[in-house]
Amino acid sequence: MKNLLWGMCLSVLLFGQVFAGETAPKKDEKAAEKSELTKMSDDNSKTLTIRGKKIEDEAKEESSYLPEETTSALKIPMKITEAPMSVQIITPELIEDQDAFRLQDVLRNVAGVSAEKNESKGQEYETASIRGFSQRLYRSGLHTLGSNTIDMSTVERVEVIKGPDAVTFGEAEPGGIINVVTKGAHLSPYKTKVSTTAGSYDNYRMSLDTGGALPNSDSLAFRLNLSYVNKDSFRDYIDQESYSIAPAFLWKIGDKTTLDIRVSHKHEERMLDPGVYFDVNHNPVASINTFLGDPNSDGIEIDDSFFDITLSHEFTPWLSMRTHVIHHDLDVDLEAVRIRGNPDANNMVARRYDASDIRVKEWAISNDFIAKCENDIVSNKFLLGTEVRHISKNWHSMQDNTLSKISITNPSSNLDLDKLKIVDGGDDDAELDVVSFYLQDTATLFDDKLNLMFGYRHDKGYALNDSATNTTTDGDAIGDSWQFGALYKLFPHFYPYLSVSTSFNPQNAGRVDTSGNNLDPETGLQYEGGFKSPFWDDKFTFTASAYRIDKENVAMRDPDNNNFYVNSGELMSRGFELTAQGDIFPNWSVIASYAYTDTEVKKSDTLPIGSRFQGIPLHSGSLWVVHTQREGRLSGLRLGGGLFAVGERVGDTADTFDLPGYATVSLMAGYQRDLGNERIMKAQLNVQNVLGKEYYETGSSYSFMPGSPRVANLTLGFEF
Predict the structure, then answer these.
(1) Alpha carbons 499 and 477: distance in angstroms, whole number
(2) Neighbours of 248 (CB within 10 A)
(3) Which of 103, 151, 102, 146 is nearest to 125 (CA)?
(4) What is the pTM for the complete model shown?
(5) Residues in Cβ contact with 708 at an 8 Å cutoff, skipping those fewer than 6 apart
(6) Is CATH 2.40.170.20 correct for 2-719?
(7) Where do the domains of the chain lie?
(8) Rounded to an integer, what distance in angstroms lies between the CA atom of residue 155 and that of residue 53?
């Protein structure tokens, strides 16, 4: 298998050398830097404002699946093909083509990313594992403590950085970073898009996306995204209703100053879904439709708000400043019957009534200075920044733990919610304050053939936890992280690279040893090497990478006293990944990936030594191809489809059984017609899991979330 995959890498590389032709002429970077404002619009056009004067849009030929540059993911503008690390960006065109409703629908395109079911205290988080390590979501660069499910209609792009990136984003797990960027306003011609979707299981969606430069203005732009969702599910009693509002503003205050404001609010109401429970032998015993909660409970009501403000100023052609302010409010109200523990020999499982209120407030302020220095030998971009972050969370619980057990094969819930024996569980409060200092330098030498990147970050945090049992713990966490990477353009289509990076992640404030001392932070170290092969004027890129990650100081339960913790765990992940993304031929777009992820518990007092991580497949991969007909009678027709495969995964932390692997097929067909006067009509049909495969996406031990059966959605849209 490995020989076959590496042979495929070599074949792609040689094929590109023969047929890709000469490399694209280098762009005049100095001339590009003279333009004080450059923004991309949704139709792949570019609007330039030079010294306050807006000039005509000019077409920019760029792959819709492969963005040329990444800024927010690395903070310093850099072409993806020249970054000495694995970076993958999911574009809005791909999100639309795949009719992605959930974040994990797009993350399945990314090599080494595994879906997770992460539910805690009644809140379902947006999380995923990268290279074996669980990652909490970032929103516009903010490491969120809690986050509602993402409305993909408000997402501009999804950025995934593989491996430790604590230098850019701060404390985190060593697997990587998932950063979701919401849509912003652009100084482009005003455009409006409206669409409506109807599909299986009474799925109805409507959205509006309108915005552009304001009339008679070359300095003000506005954008508004609205969406409404009302849908049921193949799961009994699981329905959802939500709406989101996301306005954005852009103000070019002067020749050198720009203010970018992005706001989003989502309100959602749905039932808490505990998933499907397996029996004591880890076999599913009920239909994937089976619901174990109580349909008479109110479920979850969520309000999630983000405020994202960026002020950019250019002092001189070589020195600029960027100030970024983010504020996040999350309110969760829950009433549900939740499952407790594992099923018994009679396939009965305990449950409890839970009425919880969760309040999360987060804010962060970062200030970056970017300096550019060029001479005949080296070109430098230097970043110096500081960040202050605060998080506070309150969880108040009302519970009844006296409910009778329920059968997981034939559940029947006849609870009288008015007669419950509800006990006030009190409040859990947590606070975290972090102050950070970081610097980063990217340098190009030898006529832009050698790219070097170095970064360092120092974090100092203070965590406080006040539990409902009147137990208060607090402590400081101080850590340093660094990274180094190098990429060399050895041949026109062969750019080998290597990198070394570290991570730093403080322990939860409640994790103390028997002496009451806080545990040392978890640390990670990654070595990565590989190559990138850009073809066809950088419209297509093939990337191969191999890595090893070692994570130390993992918190484990003290074997002598289960109420305390010790720094006794060591984990390891190693593997290789292949990614192909962009336009392979005119009118053909593709994104493909393969990941071999070998995880292992190296040292632990509670986990089996040598076992693999729970939920992480050894093999996983995807392929998605779309053809667009641009000429002839069928002009405007788009056909595409793909395969998404996940191998066997360890089903529990004790490594006692494997969850079967699966592969699903998705298809799409779309048609676009130009009605004249810049009006466009669109229609698109998406069918997911065409073969009706029954499978389980995520889960742990006994509770697993089944994947959706065959689903068809028809979307009609109009642009003007």
Answers:
(1) 26
(2) 23
(3) 146
(4) 0.86
(5) 234, 688, 689
(6) yes
(7) 2-719
(8) 30
